[in-house]
Amino acid sequence: MERQEALWLIARVGVLRHVCDLDLLIFFVRHPRSLLTSEQLAAFVGCELPQLSASLDVLINAGLLTRTQNPTHAARLYVFRPDPTDDEWLPSFIRHAFTRAGRIALREALGRQSAEASNRGKGPVDLVTRITRGRIASNG
Amino acid sequence: MAERDLVKTGISGLDGILSGGIPRGNVILLEGTVGTGKTTLGVEFVYRGASQFDEPGIIVLFEVSPDKVMRDAGYFGWDLPALEKAGRLKIIFTTRQVFRQELQQADSLLLEEAAKMGARRIFVDGVAGVISGASGQEPREMFHILAEGLQREELTAVLALEASAFSVDQSSSLPEESIADTVIRLRLEDIQRAAVRSIEIAKSRGHDFQLGRHSFRIIDGSGLQVYRRVQAPRQLSRDRAGAFDTSTRISTGVPGLDEVVNGGYFLGSTTVVAGISGVGKSVMALQYVAEGVRLGERSLMLSLDEQVPQVMRNARAIGLDLQPMIDQGLLRLYYDPPQEIEIDHHFHTIEQIVEEFQPTRVVLDSISTYGSSLGTSGRVFRDFFHALVALMKEHQVAAVYNHENPEMLGMSSMMGEFGMSSLVDNIILLNWIELGDNFRLGLTVAKMRANPTSRVTHECEIVDGAGMRVLPRKLPFLTRQPFSGYQGLVSRAPTRRRDDSMRETTPPDE
User: Fold this and answer.
1) What is the pLDDT of residue B450?
2) DSSP annotation of A85
3) DSSP strands (E only) in B175-328
4) Residue A102, SS3?
5) Which residues, given as ranges, of chain B have pLDDT below 50?
6) How much of chain B exceeds pLDDT 90, in percent?
7) Beta-carbon separation of A35 and B102 below 8 A
8) Contact across the interface for B93 and A36, Cβ inside 8 Å
9) How far apart are alpha carbons A26 and A97 in whole angstroms?
10) Any residues with CB less than 8 A from the CB of B436 and at least 6 apart, and which?
11) How far apart, in whole angstroms, are the C-alpha atoms of residue A63 and residue B379?
12) Which residues are registered as beta bridge partners of B158?
């Protein structure tokens, strides 16, 4: 996977900021309807509970995931619901995220994006615009 | 009597064994060791329900990820993502601990999902840990709770249980089996160095089903295919078709033979042609099917000994071009390699061909090959042959079975160790008879049910480009002593008759 493509994908998803966000997204792509406790989910993804909670909020706020709320249940039903417009990036994301090399490239891209964003004080949306424009420019 | 509400599994061949399906709401325990096909069966059960019977379903997975199940289902042509999009299927990934808690709660999220989509079926892949992992509860008690939870929602549930613990001989049953309504066991059975998949309905409340171990295969592009045990009873019509047609005769296609067998074999009769290898059984068979085609009758040749191109080449050697007969749709040749034959599958294939092609004549070359594969001492071969004879009679087929008798000269028993002679209607013996320095071919009708039979041994010959013919008792010219001039032809020690009046030879000057 090319570094540029990984950067574009991360930017296109738009909401990922932490490695746990990425791992959680990959998990839900593979398990689109999961009935699990937070502890079990944290164990599957391999991150700490506070970070898992933050990452879940990221995906839920982005509209990629729904979560049932029922205080009497320890487990929650998570349903991965990509928007139809996500067809632009989702197939490519799946193709790369399901390989080791692809996942490493995506993690690196995520790290670069976070670093660049914090250096320039710009958010991921600006990056999307910049990278997409750069891609169009290079293609043209 | 109230009509049963049966859930059709939709799995090819399985509903037949289940006498139409499984009573709705039954909890089905699906047992089997690793690799026996539990997941495939369970997923197909839900897939067929959602896609063919308007019964949405849920698949619950604990270890296998849903994307893998979808990928594997794709190889069978089952489009699970499309069913999910249509809201007819939900694949839920969870843990056993959560699943156990869910089923114990009145407001279970899982069952709420089932209710929301109107699910009628559920498959839970791997309930062993669900049952045994609960602290403070006996597995039997836990299974009872699980079954109750599913029954509350009127779901017909298939629960796969990894049965590494259960012994193959099934001398002891699992405690869960007494609670489950239906128990299905999947096995990989070792047959010498091969392995065959088998399925057994050990129990099913509320309806009849066919006992015993039936074979099944997992076939790419379609899924499970269950083959009913060859011994299991078929349709009732088969019993009624036990008697053969006593008026229609089927010509043998061998010049001179029809006269010997009173004009031909009866329609629906069973004929065995017995003789050592090379004596001309296959030649007779080819002439029999070719004669059928000539008369406009559909004819089928089932070969275990020779592949189709070889059969066609042999036919050309006796002046028969089978290709135009095949092209006409009047002849079908089917070859099944005899190595490691799966008898249920093999019989199923024959049954399908006969039902679809509706032949008047069938030749099977040869039943001895089954003996080599299945053994002749046990019941498998005998039951298979019984089923085959019944199938042909049901379809009013005049069937000819070639049988290789190991005796080179003469014959001391009609069917050797096969012991099937009482089941067949006609037996024709083909023998080499050593006279002087020649092997000459003799044909004797040893048995012909419902026919007057003259057990005279007739001489036959096979002529290149023309096939077999039975020679007349009176030979037109005296090149050799006719069979009528001998006695003890089949007893391996023929001697010339002293009484010249018994000779039926026509002198050369006549």
Assistant:
1) 80
2) G
3) 182-191, 194-204, 213-219, 223-227, 249-250, 265-266, 270-275, 299-303
4) helix
5) 165, 167-168, 240, 502, 504-510
6) 51
7) yes
8) yes
9) 7
10) none
11) 65
12) B28, B123
Q: Looking at the complex, does the CB of residue B130 fall below 8 Å from at least one CB of chain A?
A: no
Residues of B in contact with A71 (CB under 8 A): none
pLDDT in tens, A40-92: 999 998 999 999 999 999 999 988 899 988 777 889 999 998 776 666 778 88
A contacts of B101 (beta carbons < 8 Å): 73-75
A74 interaction partners in chain B (CB closer than 8 Å): 98, 101
Helices B308-317 & B281-294 angle (0-180, nearest 10) = 80
ipTM exceeding cut-off 0.85 for this assembly = no
Looking at the complex, report in whole angstroms how far the Cα of residue B216 sits from the nearest Cα belonging to chain A.
31
What type of residue is B116? K
What pLDDT digit, counting tens, does each position of B220-274 carry? 999 999 999 887 766 655 554 555 566 789 999 999 999 999 999 999 999 999 9
List of chain B residues whose C-beta atoms are within 8 Å of the C-beta of residue A68: 109
- Residues in a beta bridge with B28: B158, B182
CA nearest neighbour of B391 among B237, B265, B494, B222? B237
d(CA A111, CA B238): 74
Q: Looking at the complex, report in whole angstroms how far the Cα of residue A11 sits from the nearest Cα belonging to chain B.
A: 25
| Whether A31 and B65 lie within 8 Å, measured CB to CB | yes
**Nearest CA to CA, how far is A8 from chain B (Å)?**
25
List the single best residue of A24, A31, A70, A94 to mutate versus B (max B Cβ within 10 A): A31
